[in-house]
Amino acid sequence: NLRNYWHGFEYFLKNTYPMKNLITFMFGLLLLSSCSKNLESGKEEISSDVNFRVEEAPEWTALFKRSSGWFGGDGIFAIPFSGKDHERTPQDSILFIFSDTMVGEIVDGKLTPGYKMINNSIMILTGDEPVHAKVDFRVNADENGAPRTLFVPAVPPAEKGDYFWFGDGFVNHKRGNDMYLFSYRIRNTHTEDDFPFMEAGNSLVVIPRDSEYPYEEHRQLDVPFFNPGEPPSTSFGVGVLDNTSEAGAVAPDGFVYVYGIRGTNKELVAARIRPEAIEDFSSWEFWNGNAWSGNFKDCSPIADSVSNELSVTPVGANSYALIYQYAGIFPTIYMQVGPTPVGPFGPRLKVWETTSYLEDKELFSYNAKAHPAISRPGELLVSYNVNSFKFFDVIESMPNLYRPRFVRIVFENK
DSSP 3-state assignment of 168? Predict the structure, then answer.
């Protein structure tokens, strides 16, 4: 199925972008499941119920353009240390989580020899404004000072050589303000096919409140819902909504909602849990389309053709905005709005077309999501990742390509 998908996807790319020599490596960053079968569903008319405009946010985009040390990464999630996900807190600090990360030196616009890719890293922003003097990009290092991945899978069923790509997370006010980060456990298969890797499972990385970088006191838990024995597999953690009063939710109900992506159709499914019981996986509930069930197999999709990273965010007392990149990699960012954290979500509202805003025709974008903790009132700051179809061919001459870009949704009736 992966090989068949690859050929179909390659055909699409060749008829959409003038390019040569496709490299499969970068698609691993976003192809945790295959492309949607319902691409035509994205052509629904825009509703007039939600009035908004969208503009670039160049000050945030510029914050991630760097020439020394950390100079690129994807998988960006922004989590406030206070856990006030829905309140603007200028005195707070924000933890930014990245997955695959590039480390090196850029001189006169060119990448110098010795650069390296690691599997995850962080950045800490003091306050909630894009001020260069208040950011601290942190790249873990080994005993010789060489860049090293920060979080490495370390508990069963992880195997030696596995690595993490990160999903969303939150600060758990009911468990000592520890931070809970969802992650995808990736394993290289060392095969000669187009996709020499696989997603082997999901984990929770728990960082104690008082732990200091590099967070050596963190714990890891296996999330048991990835593949209960029969396909399709489901990856939880693509987005998290902390809908509690402690998080500053607009209409709190005391639950944390954890969103997952399932199967070849990129279906969005939802679970909820009382934050104090998050480690008791038998207490999780799953939306079956009508009610909450304790049976994981009852999950019913609430959207399709979503991306492997996304967001669900309150935008009013009875409005929740689902934001994602269409089918993960297509250039349109969509928003769907519903009255509850599980919908029903309305038609796809086109937020942004990324293609014309990329610096080169060989670049593509993926995995858009909103970041409420760094958004102004009445707005949502949205990021999307950028990569290249010829990554290793162009990274030395275009070293700043691999970093997030930002746009801002301004709601005119909120």
Answer: strand
- The neighbour count for residue 323, using CB atoms within 10 Å, is 27
Q: Give the least confident one: 63-67, 193-197, 362-366.
A: 193-197
The two structure tokens encoding residue 237:
């953690």
Q: How many secondary structure helices (H) and strands (E) does the chain include?
A: 3, 25
Q: Residue 391: exposed, middle, or buried by beta-carbon count in 10 A (0-12, 13-18, 19+)?
A: buried
Long-range contact list for 79-82, CB < 8 A, 24+ apart? 79/168, 79/169, 79/170, 79/171, 79/179, 79/181, 79/373, 80/128, 80/171, 80/373, 81/171, 81/179, 82/171
pLDDT tops 60 at residue 175? yes
d(CA 221, CA 352): 37
209's tokens:
């409140």
SS (H, E, C) 198-258: EEEEEEEEEECCCCCCCCCCCEEEEECCCCCCCCCCEEEEEEEEEECHHHCCCCCCCEEEE
Name the residue among 391, 414, 393, 406 with its Cα closest to residue 29. Answer: 391
Give SS3 for 7. Answer: helix
Residue 152 to residue 250: CA distance in whole angstroms? 36
Per the CB < 8 A criterion, the answer to whether 279 and 308 are in contact is no
Q: What tokens appear for 125 in the block?
A: 């922003």
- DSSP states along 25-86: GGGGGT-SSPPPS-GGGGGPPPPSSS-EEEEE-HHHHHHT--SEEEEEE---EEEETT--TT
Q: Is the omega angle on the peptide bond into residue 344 within 30 degrees of 0, that is, cis?
A: yes
Residue type, 198: M
Residues 363-394: tens digit of each pLDDT:
999 999 999 999 999 999 999 999 998 898 99
Do the Cβ atoms of 223 and 200 come closer than 8 Å? no
